[in-house]
Amino acid sequence: MNISILYATYSNSTYTAAEVLKEALEEAGHEISVNLVHAATAQNLADADLTIFASPSWDFDGKEGQPHEDFFHFFAKLAENPPAPFSYTVLGLGDSNYTYFCGAVDEILSMATAAGGKQTHDVLKLDQYYLNEATCVAAIKAWALEVTKSTA
Questions:
Q1: Given its phi and psi angles, is residue 70 left (phi above 0), alpha (psi -120 to 50 degrees) or beta?
Q2: Model-level pTM greater than 0.90?
């Protein structure tokens, strides 16, 4: 299966999580591409059997629990040039001490569905990646196996 991971990051934790996910999915025999979402196009979605959007949750535009701002720009581009239907899921990084734990996940789910996407796998929400790195890495690897099982 060809899987595209499109991510954005502020402090590199989402990049690190995307790389862990890439390795786990490659070990399961999948072809993986990892790209920053700001450089992605509708073609990235068309070329993939599954797209995994990965984002931290952050304050943006005066609102807490938002995805990285590059996701808003990406989905705005898609609105101008709608993609063919695509399959996706979401990996979210957050902090459970905030009001909207991994709020970016809900925002991305909404934007991706509005763009013609179909959520095909459960999302993964990670709490305080750098403070709980071993736990988060284990969760990513387990999630990758679930994604692999449900695509077989």
A1: alpha
A2: yes
β-sheet bridge partners, residue 87: 118
At residue 128's C-alpha, the angle toward residues 114 and 23, to 5°, is 70
* Cα 129 to the center of its chain, rounded Å: 15
Could you list the residue range(s) of the whole structural domain that residue 17 is in? 2-151
Residue listed under structure tokens 């059997």 = 49
Query: Structure tokens of 15?
Result: 């990049």
- For residue 32, the domain's CATH number is 3.40.50.360
Number of structural domains found in the chain: 1
- At 17-39, the pLDDT tens digits run 999 999 999 999 999 999 999 99
- Report pLDDT for 96: 93
In whole angstroms, what is the distance from residue 64 CA to residue 5 CA?
A: 24
